Amino acid sequence: MTTPTHRRNPWVMLVVFFGLVAVVALVGSLSATAAPELYTRFTLPSWAPSAELLGPVWTVSYLVLALAGWAYWRTDGETQGFALYGIGLLLNLLWAPLFFAGGSTRLACVDAVLLDFFVLMTVGLFYRRSRGAALLLLAYFGWLCYATALNVAIIALNDVR
To answer: 87, 93, 139, 141: which has the highest count of C-beta atoms within 10 A?
Structure first.
């Protein structure tokens, strides 16, 4: 028998959510060690952020992602919402290895579009129980859409696979 959410220690669960998201961030950063150099080699659109800005923005995005999951958990969130949240984490985890380590900007773009779709679906499910969690996730979704557009622009402006 599982313990109801309200009986579990919320601070321990907050650490769990930060831990899950930290694994995603760690895999991304380990696979993107050459990212700043590679990023500057691309022809970038005029609206592309500097390489120095990407790390801090992703860090804030990951914090928001963890807080959104935790806020949803605090409402005794449905399994379906957590399943989509988990798929989103997995897709996020795959993007940097595909783009940087694997050198496949096109496959990374497919991953990014799928990630956008799953996060948007997760926003809808989170909204049913926690508007706060949904709004946090919506902020993360906004950044993801910008990152996806950047991925598409890199493909369009460069001779990449």
So the answer is: 141
